[in-house]
TrEMBL record:
Pathway: Amino-acid biosynthesis; L-glutamate biosynthesis via GLT pathway; L-glutamate from 2-oxoglutarate and L-glutamine (NADP(+) route): step 1/1. It comes from Streptomyces cyaneochromogenes. Coiled coil: none annotated. This is Glutamate synthase [NADPH] small chain. The lineage of its organism: Bacteria, Bacillati, Actinomycetota, Actinomycetes, Kitasatosporales. Residues 38-69 form the 4Fe-4S ferredoxin-type domain. It catalyses: 2 L-glutamate + NADP(+) = L-glutamine + 2-oxoglutarate + NADPH + H(+). Its cofactor is [4Fe-4S] cluster. It comes from the Bacteria. GO terms for molecular function: 4 iron, 4 sulfur cluster binding; glutamate synthase (NADPH) activity; metal ion binding; oxidoreductase activity, acting on the CH-NH2 group of donors, NAD or NADP as acceptor.
Length: 487
C-alpha cells in the first residue's frame, strides 16, 4: 500500500491552524484552508502495509483506511472518495470531530507517530465536494414502506440516508428549528462550519429523505400517533439529559448547562440573534468538566470576549504519553489533550471539586468555592486545607449526559424498556421491546463518539430494513453490545 518506505521517509505533519489572535476575531474553522493538500499525499504514504490493519478495529465503522490512504497517495481522489463513502455516510463530520480511535490503533503508532488518518480523511472528502463528485444516490425503486426517524444527529441522519437509499420513504423528525442535532447546536462553528451539514441535508433531500423540524415526539406529536402513521420507527433522540451539580448556590443566575450556553452562540452564527442571550463578554468564566464539551465552552467564551476562562476537572491530569502497561496499544488511551480552544488561552485545573457557589445581593453568581481532591481507598476525597474560591460570573456545566430525555413522554408513550444504565434497551437487530421500533446512537448506547453514532445509525438501518422486507443487504458495522477497545 502507498509508498513502502513512506513511514521511513516522512514524519507526521498535521493541518496548520490560523494564528490565535486572528481566529479569535471570527467563528470560522481554526485550520488554514487548503493547508493539507500540499502534504497529504506524503502523509498518506506513511500507511505502512502492516498486514493486519488494526485501524479497522479502532474504528467502529470499519473504515477501509489503508485503501483510501493508498488512493490519496496516488492522488486518485475519485477512488479514494468511493472507498471512504463505502463505510461512512459523513466523512467530513468525522474527519473534523472524531477523536480518531483509528490513529490510536495504528500499527505505526507502536513506536512512531501514527498516520494522520483524520487529516487524510477530511482532505479526501473536501476534495470530492470541491470536484462535485458527491452526488445524490436516489433508490432505483420504492418499497412502499414508510419509516420515521426521531432525531437528526449523526445516528439519525445515517439511518435515514441508508433507509432512503434502500427504497423506503423516510421522514426525519427534529424538535429543534434546524436539522443536525448536536452537530448543529452543540458543536461550535470554529470546530465545524455548518455549511458541511447543509450540503449533506440537500443531498439527502435530493435522494428523497423528508425533514420535519420543530416537532418534538411525545409533546407536539404523540408517539402512539406516530407509530400508526409509519411502518417502522428509528429513535435516534440522543442522550440529552445533562448531569447536574447539586451543590449550594446552584440556583444562582449565571449557572447554565453547556447545552443551554453553546446553542445560543451557534444561533448567532445562523442569524437568529445579534448577540447571544447568554454571553461570556467581560465575565470571569468557569467551565466545570474537562471533556470536549467543556473545551467547546472554553473556545466559545474566548470568542465572546471573556475576562478570564478557567476549566475545572475532578479527575487527575492525564498522562502526556500512552502508559504501555495500563493503556497498551491498540487501546484508546486517555491522554492529556490540548485542543484548539486550549491553545487560545485560559487555565486548566485538575483534581478539584466544587463545594458551593456564592452570589451577590441580586442573586447573580460571583464566586465558585472548590477544594482539591485525591483518591483514598478508591474514592475521591477532599484534601483538608485546600479550600479556596475563584471568581465566577458565568459558569457552564459540561459534565456529560445521563440518558435520553424522559420528560417529553417519548419513552412512556411507546412503552419502551430501559437497560440498567437508563438507555433504551434493544436486541441484536437494534429493535426495542416494541415491534417495529428501533433505537440508534446515544439513546441506546449512552453518551459516545460521533463515529459510534454513525455506525449505530447504519446498523439500526439494517435491522429496520430486515424488519420491513424480511432481508437486507445494508451493512451493519457493529452490534449493540460492541464497545470501544479500552482497558
Amino acid at each position: 500500500m502507498a509508498d513502502p518506505k513512506g513511514f521511513l521517509n516522512h514524519g507526521r505533519e498535521v493541518a496548520k491552524s490560523r494564528p490565535v489572535d486572528v481566529r479569535l476575531k471570527d467563528w470560522n474553522e481554526v485550520y488554514v484552508p487548503g493547508s493539507l493538500l500540499p502534504i497529504i499525499s506524503k502523509q498518506a504514504s506513511r500507511c505502512m502495509d502492516c498486514g493486519i490493519p488494526f485501524c479497522h478495529n479502532g474504528c467502529p465503522l470499519g473504515n477501509l483506511i489503508p485503501e483510501w490512504n493508498d488512493y490519496a497517495y496516488r492522488e486518485d481522489w475519485s477512488a479514494a472518495s468511493e472507498r471512504l463513502h463505502a463505510t461512512n455516510n459523513f466523512p467530513e463530520f468525522t474527519g473534523r470531530l472524531c477523536p480518531a480511535p483509528c490513529e490510536s490503533a495504528c500499527v505505526l503508532g507502536i513506536n512512531q507517530p501514527a498516520v494522520t488518518i483524520k487529516n487524510v480523511e477530511v482532505s479526501i472528502i473536501d476534495k470530492a465536494w470541491d470536484a462535485g463528485t458527491v452526488a445524490p444516490q436516489a433508490p432505483e425503486r420504492l418499497s412502499g414502506k414508510t419509516v420515521a426517524v426521531i432525531g437528526s444527529g449523526p445516528a439519525g441522519l445515517a439511518a435515514a440516508q441508508q433507509l432512503t437509499r434502500a427504497g423506503h420513504t423516510v421522514a426525519v423528525y427534529e424538535r429543534a428549528d434546524r436539522i443536525g442535532g448536536l452537530l448543529r447546536y452543540g458543536i461550535p462553528e470554529f470546530k465545524m462550519e455548518k455549511r458541511h451539514i447543509n450540503r449533506r441535508i440537500e443531498q439527502m433531500r435530493a435522494e428523497g429523505t423528508r425533514f420535519r423540524t420543530g416537532i418534538e415526539i411525545g409533546r407536539d406529536l404523540k408517539a402512539t400517533d406516530l407509530k400508526k402513521r409509519y411502518d417502522a420507527i428509528v429513535i435516534a433522540a440522543g442522550a440529552t439529559t445533562a448531569r447536574d451539580l447539586p451543590v449550594p448556590g446552584r440556583e444562582l443566575k449565571g449557572i447554565h448547562q453547556a447545552m443551554e450556553y453553546l446553542p445560543l452562540a451557534n444561533k448567532v452564527q445562523e442569524g437568529d440573534f445579534v448577540a447571544p442571550p447568554i454571553t461570556a463578554e467581560g465575565k470571569h468564566v468557569v467551565v466545570i468538566g474537562g471533556g470536549d464539551t467543556g473545551a467547546d465552552c472554553v473556545g466559545t467564551a474566548h470568542r465572546q470576549g471573556a475576562a478570564s476562562v478557567t476549566q475545572l476537572e475532578i479527575m487527575p491530569r492525564p498522562n502526556d504519553e500512552r502508559n504501555a502497561v495500563s493503556q497498551p496499544w491498540p487501546t484508546f488511551p486517555m491522554l492529556y489533550k490540548v485542543t484548539s480552544a486550549h491553545e487560545e488561552g485560559g487555565e486548566r485545573v485538575y483534581s478539584v471539586s466544587t463545594t458551593h457557589f456564592e452570589g451577590d445581593e441580586d442573586g447573580n453568581v460571583q464566586w465558585l468555592h472548590l477544594t482539591e481532591v485525591e483518591f483514598i481507598d478508591g474514592k475521591l476525597t477532599p484534601k483538608p486545607g485546600t479550600e479556596r474560591k475563584i471568581p465566577a460570573q458565568l459558569v457552564t456545566l459540561a459534565m456529560g449526559f445521563t440518558g435520553t430525555d424522559r420528560e417529553n413522554g417519548l419513552v412512556e408513550q411507546f412503552g419502551l424498556e430501559l437497560d440498567e444504565r437508563g438507555n433504551i434497551a434493544r436486541d441484536a437487530d437494534f429493535q426495542t421491546n416494541v415491534p417495529g421500533v428501533f433505537v440508534a446512537g446515544d439513546a441506546g448506547r449512552g453518551q459516545s463518539l460521533i463515529v459510534w453514532a454513525i455506525a449505530e445509525g447504519r446498523s439500526a438501518a439494517r435491522g429496520t430494513d430486515r424488519f420491513l422486507t424480511g432481508a437486507s443487504d445494508l451493512p451493519a458495522p457493529i452490534r449493540p453490545t460492541d464497545r470501544s477497545l479500552m482497558v
